[in-house]
Write a structure and sequence with these properties.
196 residues; alpha/beta; Maf protein; 8 helices; 25% strand; elongated
Length: 196
């Protein structure tokens, strides 16, 4: 079992996202959360779609190099929403959140999560892709969600595990947990390969 194989390691989740922490806990793995603040998340202009998520997860991993040793494994991740050939990041304010959800209403978008697993001597990166279809949402539904749930810490201005996910998502193709921010099934497999 992976739990036994990891018992000699210090597993670190480099994310303050409560959803990522909850999902990793669901794998019954012992880990600690260490967050290095203010990592630059600017994106090179020549990157598109999944390459952005992969780049950001690898870029974040670089900041953790100084704390690595032979028995430390760090998981870094970044989730983006890709729609109409552009990234929908975390909304700056209420108006931007409303605009994003109006764009996604009645449309299909893609959620990419890039994950980097790194140790002192190794690094592997992978990306999960999920297509998400929203039904048409009314302005009042969008405004209700943004006002009540304040999704300013979420890419694309929504959380699939919240009210909006229950009423808006018509269909998903790929991992639901990826839409929440961490493709845990794929992560479990990759961790097994990483320490094999």
């Amino acid at each position: 079992m992976l739990q036994d194989k990891l018992s000699d390691y210090n597993l670190i989740l480099a994310s303050q996202s409560p959803r990522r922490q909850m999902l990793l806990k669901g794998l019954d793995l012992n880990f600690e959360v260490i967050v290095i603040p203010e990592i630059d998340e600017s994106i090179p202009e020549n990157l598109f779609e999944k390459d952005i998520a992969i780049y950001l997860s690898k870029h974040k991993a670089q900041s953790y190099k100084p704390i690595l040793n032979n028995k430390t494994i760090v998981i870094t991740a970044d989730t983006i929403v890709w729609f109409d050939n552009k990234v929908l990041n975390k909304p700056f304010d209420k108006n931007e959140a409303i605009q994003m959800l109006k764009m996604l209403s009645g449309q299909m978008h893609i959620v990419y999560t890039g994950v980097c697993i790194s140790s002192l001597n190794r690094e592997i990166t992978f990306c999960s892709e999920t297509k998400v279809w929203f039904r048409n949402l009314s302005d009042s539904e969008i405004e209700f969600y943004v006002e009540k749930y304040k999704p300013y810490d979420k890419a694309g201005a929504y959380g699939a595990q919240e009210w909006i996910g229950y009423v808006a998502i018509e269909k998903i193709e790929g991992s639901y947990f990826n839409v929440m921010g961490l493709p845990v099934q794929q992560l479990y497999n990759e961790l097994e390969l990483f320490i094999a």
